[in-house]
Design goal:
With 243 residues, the chain is mainly β. It has a single domain, classed as Porin (Beta Barrel). The protein contains 2 helices and 8 strands. Strands 1-2-3-4-5-6-7-8 form an 8-stranded antiparallel β-barrel. It is elongated. It starts with a helix and ends with a strand.
Length: 243
């Protein structure tokens, strides 16, 4: 009798654990596509950066709803300097394109958001890192100082190339706000993203001057501030928690 009661108790506990586990799961789509745009600001070898613009498109594969590997392409304009105010009268304009592979992880992977409205609202905050290549096309640049320059008028040409390809490392900090359908699937998301882009080489601004004459110790960079839209699709996968 005691043996039968113990077996009944064990089976009952197991039954409720299985029910609880089944309710603590969700399905999610394994793919998304996204696009967006926003301004960028440069920091290169010229004294002051300037505002440009960036347009991007991306495809992501989700290992979990909050961990992804993706491919991102960009097209935009990066510029800086000013022939009138720069100490060396330098300025540039770069019509660039780029392609990178990115890894991203959102806060939802690390926190228990199911029992907190606040944590549920911030589960879409993420960080990411990537690597790829940027193709620089210098459409406009000052290679020689104007004759009216205050210092060394007519000096030049400033060394550098107009068309180059450099290693590109983007760092991402962003937020996804999800929109769910009637079945509980995340179908769309509004994306806000800050991306710091590090380029290795001297192609972003087109200037490759010796550090003996010019300060040139840091990678050329630009920051992009974008807003975009993601659309989730494809086959679904089970996740261990309720979304």
């Amino acid at each position: 009798m005691i043996f039968k009661l113990s077996r009944f108790t064990a089976l009952t506990v197991l039954f409720f654990l299985l029910i609880n586990y089944s309710f603590a799961q969700s399905n999610y789509f394994k793919w998304s596509v996204g696009f967006g745009a926003g301004p960028n600001y440069s920091k290169t070898d010229v004294l002051k950066g300037s505002w440009g613009h960036t347009v991007y498109g991306e495809v992501n594969h989700y290992l979990t709803p909050f961990v992804s590997l993706g491919l991102e392409g960009q097209y935009g304009l990066v510029q800086g300097g000013d022939i009138h105010t720069d100490p060396h009268n330098r300025q540039f304009l770069n019509d660039y394109t780029s392609l990178s592979v990115n890894f991203k992880m959102a806060l939802g992977e690390l926190i228990d958001f199911e029992r907190s409205t606040l944590l549920d609202n911030i589960k879409g905050i993420y960080v990411g890192i990537g690597a790829g290549a940027i193709k620089n096309n210098i459409a406009d640049i000052v290679r020689r100082k104007p004759m009216w320059a205050a210092i060394d008028p007519g000096y030049g040409p400033f060394p550098g190339e107009n068309k180059t390809t450099n290693l590109w490392v983007p760092l991402n900090l962003g937020y996804n706000y999800y929109f769910y359908d009637g079945y509980g699937y995340a179908r769309f998301a509004i994306n806000l993203n800050l991306q710091s882009n590090f380029t290795f080489g001297e192609g972003l601004d087109g200037y490759d001057d010796s550090s003996v004459n010019f300060k040139n110790y840091s990678p050329d960079t630009y920051n992009t501030y974008s807003i975009g839209v993601k659309c989730f699709f494809g086959n679904t996968r089970v996740y261990r928690r309720t979304l």
